[in-house]
Specification:
Elements: H1 20-45, E1 48-49, H2 54-59, E2 64-65, E3 69-74, H3 78-89, E4 95-99, H4 105-110, E5 118-122, H5 126-139, E6 144-148, H6 154-167, E7 170-175, H7 180-185, E8 188-200, E9 208-221, E10 229-235, E11 243-247, H8 251-257
Parallel strand pairs: 3-7, 3-8, 4-5, 4-6, 6-7
Antiparallel strand pairs: 1-2, 8-9, 8-11, 9-10
Helix pairs in contact: 5-6
Length: 259
Amino acid sequence: MFDYDNSPMSALVSLSALPSDRFAAFAALKTELAARAEASRVEVAGKVLSSGIEALDAALAGGYARGTIVALEGGSGRTAIAARLLAQATVRGLAAVIDAGDLFPPALARSGVRLDRLLVVPARTPIGIARAVDILLRSRAFSVVLMPAVALRTQVWARLAGLAQKAGALVLALGVCASAELAAFAATRLRCVLDRVLVSGAGGVFARLVGYDVRAHVLKHRYGRPGGSALVRAIDRGDGALVRERAVAPAGLRAVAGG
């Protein structure tokens, strides 16, 4: 099994240190392998998994590409978007979640996730999380694996990306901001920005927060065009009360207003 603590990849010899004839042979081999990898990525890109959100699927040219890592970044909203994906994945297949201690299964069930088709794996440390994802991907039993976007070395993200591609599975990494290593290996990056809040009941301090609208911006898309966005609504309509919208000022404007 891959040694996450002492990867031998750091001991590889630089190609520039090889004799000229061997250097040329390795360079040709590298070019051929890169071409094969690109061909396999194009093939995987044709197989997408719907996000469960029509507007987001349109921004992603059909959905998330299977066999890739997706970084879902930002504050409010990323969990709701992830729950929609899990609901879509558990309609006919299995999904897995790495729980770092903040998972709330009833909320997932309300989003349509079939809990009987969801495997929850507890893991707290970055190495423990990476090992759990490694095992899940090698099992090839899960179409989606949800994990926290923890800090991992380049070699680890490279291995997880390779395993995801071989398994045809989607790895969704959730965090406030992707590290440089995750950003490099993620085929898609989405950033969630709070757009407006939804309230019901009496006005003022007696209003009750029932949901919010989030703008999901496509920062990176290996198989499509970045720069698109989708408005995603997460709302609890439990009591059927009238819902009012309240816009959220951009962070810069709030800072100015606050002095």
